[in-house]
Amino acid sequence: MDSNQKSIRNRIIANWATRIFLIFATIVMLYPFVWNLLASFKSNTEFLTDPFALPTALHFDNYVRAFVKSKMGNYFMNSIILVLFSTALLIVLVVPISYVLTRFKFFGSKMILNLYMACIFIQATYIMVPLFLQVNSFNMLDNRGMLGVIYAVLQFPFAIFVLSGFLRSVPRDYEEAAKIDGSGNMGVLVRIIAPIAKPGIVTVGMLSAMGFWNEYPLALVLIQSEGKKTLPVGLANLFEVQRYATDWSALFAALILVLIPTIILFVIGQKQLLQGISAGGIKG
């Protein structure tokens, strides 16, 4: 066997090893979801008898109990409003910031960009206590608007990281041509940069919205009123209630309901999401 045949054989073995590993990883990732989905259609008796058996019938009433009796509709609406507000605020603020830090050189611009990059590693739970005291000093506890502002600001570092990488891939020729035609910096940003950077903006919006949708610690600490609580907090309350009520089927149905919006969001925007991540990762 010559070296060329050995190289082909090694490449085939490596490809099959990669495929087997990816199939195994996919099964490991999907198994909890499939198990949860099947459990959501079982009766409580079926689940307690054998948690791993298939359901004998589809009990859709589990979803009705999860949605109606546990006030999931109210939690859903609170989360939707908060996610829309936070995501819109983030996009409106972070696109100009990324554009300025990427395209304009001024004193301290590199330090500001590096500071944002360093803040990527700071999680909300690390600064929970000072954040709580600061919000309390403003008398803004139990305020969903303030929680939305905090969500957006904490997402700045990651959003700037992705967008700045994407904007570096945009040729300056478009901006120079627009300025020759009389456009100012704001006109260039709105009419030239934003449409070209749409995949990056969509990526930031989608990833941020998913993060806001699933965020739990800040919503638990900063929101106290029952009517203002978000879906993750409501789901945790439902878990506590159903654990003593032994209505496990309704709990599993609620978990599936929570996943539906993020799955729909991913299916709708997966093409631009992957484009944005690739461009931001390569240039970042």
UniProtKB/TrEMBL annotation:
Its membrane topology: Multi-pass membrane protein
Gene3D superfamilies cross-referenced by the UniProt entry: MetI-like
Source species, domain of life: Bacteria
Keyword entries, A-Z: Cell membrane, Membrane, Transmembrane, Transmembrane helix, Transport
Residues covered by the ABC transmembrane type-1 domain: 76-269
Location within or outside the cell: Cell membrane
Residue spans crossing the bilayer: 12-34, 75-101, 113-133, 145-167, 188-213, 248-268
Classification via Pfam families: BPD_transp_1
PANTHER family from the UniProt entry: DIACETYLCHITOBIOSE UPTAKE SYSTEM PERMEASE PROTEIN NGCG, MALTOSE TRANSPORT SYSTEM PERMEASE-RELATED
Family stated for the protein in its record: Belongs to the binding-protein-dependent transport system permease family.
Name the record gives this protein: ABC transporter permease
